[in-house]
């Protein structure tokens, strides 16, 4: 059981850390906020963590409310991103937030109205016979089920045209994970209903393990789905960085030699050139423009091999972007 | 695409540094060259026509900006490498954005330039990129480096909305 709790948490935090490192390389925050919230909620829900932290909070399951709010916020943020990606109206997003806020308020009121002494990792088993707690659990899981289903449906319906392969596969995994999550929520609602009505459960242990397994599968699916495009992007950036570093290493002796010429001294005035080799795009670009300026003015200062090398670098960095422009406009 | 040009935009912010001139364009993190051209045209208040010309049209120069009442022209030698051509155009954008006043002395040594413009009548401003670097040229060059970083920033923007938002 502890593996079913630990594994999703570790995988989620690995994705979060990857995204945080990615920020340094120009990645957008994207799903980072949602992932931090979901990872935090998942970690706090690990039995050992839960009992320790809740004991510190007064040993009356206030942490359960915190977990609900944090997970609810994370999934709501994920849904907000889905709303933005589908181009749906802001009204839908406002309704979503409003429902989330009302839900959080209702959750707090229901939990505080109930008497829930003693940290309980099996919260539903212990307290769901209390109608307040039954509503507290029922409303939360119904809400999570609703926004997870919405996220899954929109992810499934999305237009895949223009997606990179890793993103397409990743998001198909996320869509599938959402539906697994909805199944988990359905089982949880069944468990809550059984406890609330004090009905005899058919193999409650099986249901409980099934619920935990499906939740773990959902969270691991989310992590893999978001990790795939991140991994692909990191690989592309690493390749580009290595290519830039190689180009700069090969350009350095050319730049150093040209700087000793009159043409080099003139061109240096405008290029604000640094000879310290850094594998940044800016550095490579400045060096290329510096050498190009000299090449067009004094082609004899570069060998045929050097000119070919320069053409190759320019082609490689011009390839993905729009810098093959301009097309001749009139003449 | 329908474009509109603000004819009063030239009167705003007369004292500009390269960074404020670029900042004023309010470019997104990454732009296509066409979008950059549109943004500079908007700031300039008139259309900009870019022409590739034979190298002997601009002897000793890597680019030239000429402004008339109705439009601006940027001439770039067609023999230049593609990347340098883009940089030269961004350099001329720099003169435009910094509202440099130009130099009349350039007209007479380059009569063939006017073949590409249909005559020299109405030219009110003219600036060239050459190996002689004065303060105006250095400022325009700095704008060129700043603008090129927007055009060359990172990988291309994904076409998928989901990938844009979540990616």
Report on this model:
The complex is a heterodimer of chains A (331) and B (167). Chain A contains twelve helices and no strands. Chain A has 331 residues and is an all-alpha fold. Chain A folds into two domains: 3-237, Rhopdopsin 7-helix transmembrane proteins (Up-down Bundle), CATH 1.20.1070; 243-318, no CATH class. Chain A is elongated. By secondary structure, chain B is an alpha+beta fold. Helix content of chain B is 35%, strand content 13%. In chain B, a hairpin with a 4-residue loop joins strand 2 and strand 3. The radius of gyration of chain B is 16 Å and the shape is globular. Residues 1-13 of chain B have low confidence and may be disordered. At the A-B interface, helix 4, helix 9, helix 10, helix 11 and helix 12 of A face strand 1, helix 3, helix 4 and helix 5 of B.
Order of helices and strands of chain B: HHEEEHEHH
Q: What is the overall number of helices of chain A?
A: 12
Mean pLDDT, all residues of chain A: 86
* Count, helices of chain B: 5
**What's the level 1 CATH class of the largest domain in chain A?**
Mainly Alpha
Radius of gyration of chain A: 28 Å
According to CATH, the fold-level topology of the largest domain in chain A is Rhopdopsin 7-helix transmembrane proteins
What distinguishing features does this structure have?
heterodimer; A: 331 residues; mainly alpha; Rhopdopsin 7-helix transmembrane proteins; 12 helices; disordered C terminus; B: 167 residues; alpha+beta; 5 helices; disordered N terminus
Short synopsis of the structure:
The complex is a heterodimer of chains A (331) and B (167). Chain A has 331 residues and is mostly helical. Chain A has 2 domains: 3-237, Rhopdopsin 7-helix transmembrane proteins (Up-down Bundle), CATH 1.20.1070; 243-318, no CATH class.
